[in-house]
Amino acid sequence: MTTTTKLIRARRFLPLFITQLLGAFNDNLFKNAMILFVVYEVYNSEAQEARFSALASAIFIIPFFVLSALAGQLADMRDKAKLIRIIKACEIAIMLVGGAGLALAWKGIELEGMAIPLMLAALFAMGVHSTFFGPIKYAILPQHLREGEVLSGTGLVEAGTYIAVLAGTIVAGWIEVEHAAIAVIAVACIGFIAGREVPPAPPLCEPEPLDYHFIRASVNLVRTTMRDRRVFLAICAISFFWAIGTVLFIQFPPLAKNMLRASKEVASLFLVIFSVGVAIGSVAINALLKGTVSARWSPISVIGMGAFLVAFQQVCRVWPPHQGPDEMMDVATFVVQPLAVPLMATLLGIAVCGGMFVVPLYAFLTTFVEKSQTARTIAANNIVNSGAMVAGSLATGGMTFLGIAVAQQLLVVSLSCLASAWLGHLLFRAEKAAA
Questions:
Q1: Which helix (H) or strand (E) is 239 found in, with range?
Q2: Among 93, 266, 116, 308, which Cα is nearest to 184's?
Q3: Residue 262 forms beta bridges with which residues?
Q4: To 5 degrees, how large is the angle CA 71–CA 76–CA 81?
Q5: CATH class of the structural domain 3-201+212-434
Q6: What's the pTM value of the predicted model, to 2 decimals?
Q7: What would the pLDDT profile of 316-335 be if each residue is shown by its tens digit?
Q8: I need a labelling partner for 113 at 20 to 30 A (CA). Which of 18, 61, 278, 333 fits?
Q9: Where are the alpha helices (DSSP H) in 108-149?
């Protein structure tokens, strides 16, 4: 029986895996249902659509930047299982607000005055929810898993996350917004039930007073965590990855609608392919490394990601202009287009390489620090990551403001992969030096 098979059946891992999977599913079901509705039903301008998509991404990310330090302190100083139950109970209340916003949008009631503000408020609250859950889901792994299981557990969490992203994206693209309003509440309730089954995970150090001054706490946390060169390089490399991923996720709906003249189901398909690819990469890198935590494959993985980005952009550039009736292509029409297969293949390549790049880096953060410091290390990572993602959102907005086409923005993003590759190379050198 493989390590992965043992873990997926073990109570010390399965309830956490299900809880995380349902949370990621709900995040993406709600966020994509909202964005797709607004992009396809409210706005009729590529610039407006890109700005709203960037705004939604920024609203979701801001809590990570502001509250991660407190979240990391809590996760290291309190029982992680008890925190999970509190967080998942809050998700139910958040989704009641978000579901109300979706329902009002469906009815066309106070769209600008109430429906969209309610949805954005719920999205912000889900960002807060994820900020507090994020350090726990990684920090609890070395506490519940054996040393040789941590990379497998991290890979499963990442793969499960992207499978959930996949499922949430598919559902958001194919069901009506009124059904999404009900689904997000139901899933939150199921997640709360699963979270109650996570085994106790008491703190591994003496509880210290919490620092509620978020600026001071964030600065001190990042400064302390970055003292280890390997952790510093891993966090920087992960941050570049998420900045790139943020730009891609912002651009997919406007690109599908305006350049490819494709329906929201096709935009959803792009997100699905990306999520499947990251899940494949997450599992593949674990097989290549055979359970060893190493950055050996990180540089070549992210260079491959950049190469596939350039190829994806080139396919978009030569995509034939839309002719005939001004109707959006559905999935069946899109997949039989001459360039559809190369477009989807290059997108899949981007995601597979991304998954192979990022999973070992997360494993670094949970295995090369003291177990009592793991949650705070993940929280410091989240602070830097969120800053990178906000930068990615702002860069997208800035390029759009300057009139740079969506497809051309992808070339700019591909250059960032070179910086990530260099950081991965430095990390591997630091890893060998430490060995």
A1: helix 229-254
A2: 93
A3: 329
A4: 85
A5: mainly alpha
A6: 0.68
A7: 888 887 655 567 788 888 88
A8: 61
A9: 116-144
